[in-house]
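WARN  no MSA supplied for this record, continuing single-sequence
INFO  ligand: iron/sulfur cluster
INFO  echoing inputs
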Amino acid sequence: MESFEKFLASVNDDIEKIFDNQKEYIHCKAGCSFCCERGDYPISELEFKYMMLAYDELDKNIQEIIKNNIKEVKNGNTDSYKCPFLIKNNCSIYTHRPFVCRTFGVLTEDAKGNPSFPFCATMNKNYSEIYDEEKQHLSASLVEQKGFKTFPKIFRLSNKVIMNIPLAKQLNIEFGECKKMIDFLELE
Ligand code: SF4
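INFO  complex generated
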């Protein structure tokens, strides 16, 4: 895991710079967990193993809560679900959370190269000032009207992009299979 932690530290630094670059538009606050309440959270096998290191260190009672949450998600059988590791609006494995969670809340590019807004843009949160709800798109005129200093940048932050950062190759990191988080979580 040493190489992965080195890689993760570098990715984290880059993501922090991105958030800093976009700070005019970001309203993320401690205790806000909307991003963890609905999603499919795609992750790699390696990220899953890293998450489990944090899970193994948790108090047994917390582990039980997580196991019950997993059961509920499995029974619900939906593509979009509340993350089982979210407890009282906090991530129980925060330091070991996967890449996708680290990019929550920032304007990214979808598979077709179009801007993909965090869903909280419609909830008076990130980028809401410049999100045209009618057109469901970024409004350049709102950026100007509202006097923002920087035009929002659209970042390529998919797992595929992150896993292909040259440092991953330099460190010989094998990410393994990628799938939805819930599909890695087996019930004992
Ligand atoms: S792993 Fe943590 S940060 Fe990621 S979705 Fe779950 S609760 Fe949220």
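The chain has eight helices and eight strands.
INFO  checksum written, moving to next record
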